[in-house]
Structures are given as structure tokens and as C-alpha cells.
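# nightly structure sweep
# worker-07 picked up a monomer target from the shared queue
# config: single-sequence mode, recycle default, output format = C-alpha cells
# input follows
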Amino acid sequence: MTTRAGFIALIGEPNAGKSTLLNRMVGAKVSIVTHKVQTTRARIRGVAMEGESQLVFVDTPGLFQPRRRLDRAMVAAAWGGAADADVIVLLIEAHRGITEGVERILDGLQEIGQGRTVALAINKIDKVQSEVLLGLTQDLNERYPFAETFMISAERGYGVDTLRKWLAGKLPESPWLYPEDQIADLPMRMIAAEMTREKLTLRLHQELPYQLTVETENWEERKDGSAKIDQVIYVVRDGHKGIVLGKRGETIKAVSQAARAELEEFLDRKIHLFLQVKVRPNWLDEAERYSEMGLDFKDGNA
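# output follows
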């Protein structure tokens, strides 16, 4: 039996649908998915099986014009994920077409894509007419020699199986890199923190302070099979703390309930979740916080 295994980097602009595609490929929720841009910070690896091939997905932060240290570290992580991968998939939103951001990514691919298999996946195809799709496909393939082009809807699942099968055949012959039943190589503490951060993002909408992070401070296994999880939400200002807590603590309570419900479903057991909000003015400049997110602090240097 010939087995294959390798790393596949999903790259694209923020909100192009990379996390949705990753979760659809893996068949479980391993990456934070919200309507907000720049929500994926760390290089989350989701593992999917296709026949005798093991596909290890690197869900990179969206590629955008960085302004702050955290932005720069995220962009460096994205390109680093692509540079380390066996196959790269560029995800583009059909209705947005070739934006300035896509232009920058195509320029970056000229260097990073050398000697690698690079595929194009045009996402959200249900949002445009077929002739627009055809023109976009032609234009993009004239700008970069993609190995293959796929028309998909990550949200609806259309075309995803075809893409996964194609990717499986492009990976190098290799023993599997992870146990067959493992879906992500992120520690559960970090996945739990991401779930809480997602609920905060969904709950707060426009009010959300972007300078916010969640860390799992303590994970205690109980004799009855349940787990007690203590998390800290770090914000940079006192005013942000009030936003996260909400009037009479209603916001934090709703976030805690939603995150706990999702964790219980994901882990298939009872979870006791306790959230605290702490003001930490300089967390964006602390190397330790970056390590927690799987980012390199040094990459944030201007």
C-alpha cells in the first residue's frame, strides 16, 4: 500500500473563505470562522484523510497590508506557511476578483511558488455569473501558471471533494504524519481559546477591540470525565474591559455559554468554563503572547 502525506497551505486575502474551506475539508471545526477579517492568527493545521493520502492543511492568516507588529507577524506566518508547504492553494473570492491584495499575493507567489505545485480555487462562485467566472479564471491563469483551477463554494461544499481528491494525488509518497483520527495538531488549550475568541467576535460585532486575545490559563481533568477550563481575555484598555463584560456582565455570560456549548459538542463531554477579563496594556508587544498564538515575535519587527 502506497501512502502519501504532505502539507497544503491555503493562502488568500482576509475573509476569502480559507477557514471555512479548511473546516469543510477536515469535516470538523478546527479554525475560527467569523465575518470579521484577520481572525485567523496562528497557522492552524487541520488533518484530512483522502484514500491512502493524509492531507495536512496549514490555514494561514489572511495576506494584507500590515500596519502593526501583530499584523506583520501574521503576514510573515502566512508566507512562512506557504514556503514550507508541498502544495499551495490560492483562494480568491469570485465576486471581488483581482483586488490590490490579490495583485500583491500574485507577486509574492512568483518567488514562493517556485518549484511548488500551486492551485487556484475560486470561491463563492454562486455570487457571480458564469461568464464573469470564465473571464476571471483566464485573467488569473495568464498572470500565474497555476497547475489547476477549481470552482468551489466552501460554505456549501460545492467542488470541495474534487479539490481534495486532486490534492491527495499531488502529495509526496510518505508515511502518514499524524494518527489517522487526529484532526488538528494544535493543543486543545489553544483550540478552546480560539472558540471563545470566535464567540467574542460574533457577539461584539463593531464594538470588538481588535487588540484582544484569549488564553487558556488552566485545564483540569475531573474524575467524573468532565474538564474545568479557566481562560483569560486580555484587552489593552479599561474601556475595552467594560465592552467585553457588558451591562451587568451580560456579554461575558453569553460568550461563556456559547463557547462552553461548542466545546462540549467538540469534546463530547461536560465542560466547566470560567472566563476572566484582564487589562494588559502592552500584550501586543509581549513575545510570550505571540508564542501562544503560534506566531514569531521577531517577525513583527518593522
